[in-house]
DNA sequence: ATCCCGAGGG
DNA sequence: CCCTCTGGAT
């Protein structure tokens, strides 16, 4: 894989998908964290439909920490995996209120101690809130990185390290949403639309 | 490796 | 109808 290939792809991604992503609406850090937690295995659209009512009902982390589980479930039911997500949200808010004085951690290790917060969620939170550079490897980034020939790792953690070496740091925080969008619309898991792919000239796995 | 789980696409 | 989905926990 040649360096010009990477530059070519990155320029094209910036051109097609832009360089900034509209993050989830939030007034407080815990709201952003909650929104990202809800987005697991769901689309942004689904999450955004639920947020207004959710934050109207629960004004702060303490409200959610004290709320009956069923009330949280009701507020997010239309999103998949709602039982796990409600349970994690409540537990996470309890931790924030009872162990952290109401403050959401500002570092990766602190965030990873919270219920329902894994590497993907934590990295995205830090990127959105503080602009801290981080490569988040979800299913789309994982799949496309390998098709492009940027990585060959067996799991997301390995691919994350490979991408950190291949990609300039100033692209880390936008490669995620760019590849996710590309992955949902063009470079899909099955039946990738290579004919209409703007990255095809640099792609190792391009289909004819 | 499996489960969670509603929504939308093929 | 059947499949997958911007993860995380067990």
Structural class: mainly alpha
The chain-level mean pLDDT equals 92
Could you name the CATH topology of the largest domain? Answer: Endonuclease III, domain 1
Gyration radius, to the nearest Å? 18 Å
**How do the SSEs run, as a string of H and E?**
HHHHHHHHHHH
Anisotropy-based shape: elongated
Q: How many structural domains can be distinguished in the coordinates?
A: 2
In words, what does this structure look like?
With 208 residues, the chain is an all-alpha fold. The chain has 2 domains: 3-20 and 135-202, Helix-hairpin-Helix base-excision DNA repair enzymes (C-terminal) (Endonuclease Iii, domain 2), CATH 1.10.1670.10; 29-130, Endonuclease III, domain 1 (Orthogonal Bundle), CATH 1.10.340. It has helices at residues 3-17, 29-38, 44-57, 61-66, 69-76, 82-99, 108-112, 119-130, 139-148, 156-166, 172-185. It is elongated and about 55 Å long. It has 11 helices and no strands. The chain binds a DNA duplex (10 and 10 nucleotides) through helix 6, helix 8, helix 9 and helix 11.
